[in-house]
Design brief:
Elements: E1 4-5, H1 7-14, H2 19-25, H3 30-39, H4 49-54, E2 74-75, H5 81-89, E3 94-96, E4 102-104, H6 117-123, E5 150-151, H7 154-173, E6 177-181, E7 184-189, E8 192-208, E9 214-228, E10 235-238, H8 249-322, H9 329-345, H10 361-368
Helix pairs in contact: 8-9
């Protein structure tokens, strides 16, 4: 195994060995390895490459880009027990906030004598139970007591408790708190609830049965992962053989606080938009209401205009009839009757008719057409 490579050697090795192999054998983390390849413009195998290689499928390996001008060597350090331990325990992990307050993030190998009350609840043989009404769990209610879900075997479970005890202690010191809802746990940051839980990672093993069918099963591998958030906001922090979850604690805390702050800003802006939308909807509602009232008035004007024109037409006809000397007696009676009814139809005459008092002149005219 070499510790010094030229660019082409390192490129070929990247397509022969996985990133996990580099992390196990050299003192380099996954992000550091990715940044190194980015710096030297070294293409890495795509997703599915190792599976294709395992089954002997055709692989299209790209050419090494020639644009890079630096001819310097790539140096890596062998990973040994000594330098790995020094790397993990060299000083206590610290996180510093904007007020320059430091918080001890070192995760011990054993739980202290007096762990946090949440951890005590998780260790309790008789845990507190949330009330159930009519055999129904109300997931809208939150309680200040409960357990954080940890799905792991015995040894990883103990490590998870140690990790959670430090995590809870630091988050409470930073002014955050925890709520519980039956089998769910939430950390509350700036009023924003973020679900948290832990599990033991597992790998899928395939085996061929006597019947010839291929089956698989999940086998725990002793590594922990922490899951924050739910649904589209879910993020999983995984422990690796070279980097424990305790080393990722500063990143987890920073991510949670940043996520909560962003969601808080989004909620404030969303509430502002809802308020503005409600004001606009109210204005639009008032505008439509005024519009309906004015349309109603216009309809009345149109009806009265129609009545006025119709009454004038009838009046002109009746005057012409009245001036005719050859009218019969029956027609003269109709003309006299017509003058009375035309005055009732005319909206400008305001004439009353006891017999037609309950009738609508406009509707009557529509029926007469």
């Amino acid at each position: 195994m070499k510790t010094e490579f030229d660019r082409e050697e390192f490129f070929n090795l990247c397509w022969e060995k996985s990133i996990l192999w580099f992390c196990k054998n050299y003192l380099i983390s996954y992000p550091e390895f990715k940044n190194l390849c980015k710096k030297y413009q070294i293409p890495l195998p795509p997703n599915g490459y190792w599976m294709k290689r395992k089954f002997g499928k055709e692989i299209n390996k790209p050419k090494l880009p020639e644009a890079y001008n630096d001819t310097g060597k790539i140096h890596l350090i062998f990973r040994t027990k000594e330098n790995s331990k020094k790397l993990k325990t060299a000083g206590k992990l610290k996180a510093i906030d904007s007020n320059s307050k430091s918080y001890d993030l070192e995760v011990p190998n054993r739980l202290p004598k007096n762990p946090d009350p949440i951890i005590q609840e998780m260790l309790s043989v008789n845990p507190k139970k949330h009330p159930v009404v009519n055999n129904i769990w109300d997931y809208t209610k939150r309680y200040d007591y409960g357990r954080i879900s940890v799905s792991a075997s015995k040894k990883p479970y103990k490590r998870a408790l140690c990790f959670l005890n430090t995590f809870i202690k630091v988050m409470k010191t930073r002014g955050h708190y925890f709520l519980f809802c039956y089998e769910r746990a939430y950390i509350v940051i700036e009023g924003i609830e973020i679900a948290i839980r832990m599990r033991e990672r597992s790998k899928r093993l395939y085996e061929t049965e006597k019947s010839g069918y291929r089956s698989s099963k999940l086998v725990p591998i002793g590594l922990l992962s922490m899951i924050t958030g739910e649904y589209s906001n879910k993020k999983e922090w995984q422990e690796t053989p070279t980097k424990s979850l305790a080393e990722k604690l500063p990143l987890i805390i920073t991510y949670l606080e940043k996520t909560a702050k962003e969601e808080r800003i989004w909620k404030v802006e969303s509430a502002k938009r809802r308020k503005e939308r409600a004001i606009q909807e109210k204005k639009e509602e008032e505008r439509k209401k005024m519009q309906k009232e004015e349309i109603k008035k216009l309809r009345i004007i149109k009806q009265k205009s129609d009545l006025w024109h119709e009454s004038n037409k009838l009046r002109t006809f009746l005057k012409a009839c009245d001036e005719n000397e050859n009218l019969t007696e029956e027609m003269k009676e109709l003309v006299t009757f017509g003058f009375k009814k035309v005055d009732w139809l005319d909206p400008l005459k305001f004439s009353k008719d006891e017999l037609f008092d309950d009738l609508d002149p406009h509707r009557l005219l529509e029926e007469l057409k």
